[in-house]
Amino acid sequence: MIKMVFPVAIIVFSNVFYNLSTKFTPSRANSFLSLTVTYITAAVLSFVSFLVTSNTKNLAAEFSKLNWTAFVLGITIIGLELGYILLYRAGWKIGVGSLVANITLACVLLIIGVFFFKEGISIRQLLGMVICVIGLIMITK
Questions:
Q1: How far apart are CA 114 and CA 129, in angstroms?
Q2: What value, to the nearest 5°, has the Cα angle with vertex 58 and ends 52 and 61?
Q3: What is the pTM for the complete model shown?
Q4: Cα 59–63–67 angle (5° rounding)?
């Protein structure tokens, strides 16, 4: 049970501070410089974590295990974070903007799961998605 709940707790905890951080990023600060500082911090912390957790500490061997996904993830994270900074600068409330983005994301991923990964979809999930879309309409009006 803890194996299933712990990652969700990390995601929720991190997302709370993620949204608070992006909400309070100074509007006069250049978004890309802010992201640069963010990624320098993340890179240093990630590298130290690699050194602490890796058994081999062989960078060449570990790099050889990577593929295109590490690079695409880096690019998409910039879009994600820039999107949230711009979302809050545009005036979205923290409780509404994030909710709209995440519900929309969940619906899109459900569709991607069905069409590209051949995941099944139940009537209950489909009904839940319809309710989410209705909720999006209601929350943004």
A1: 13
A2: 130
A3: 0.85
A4: 170
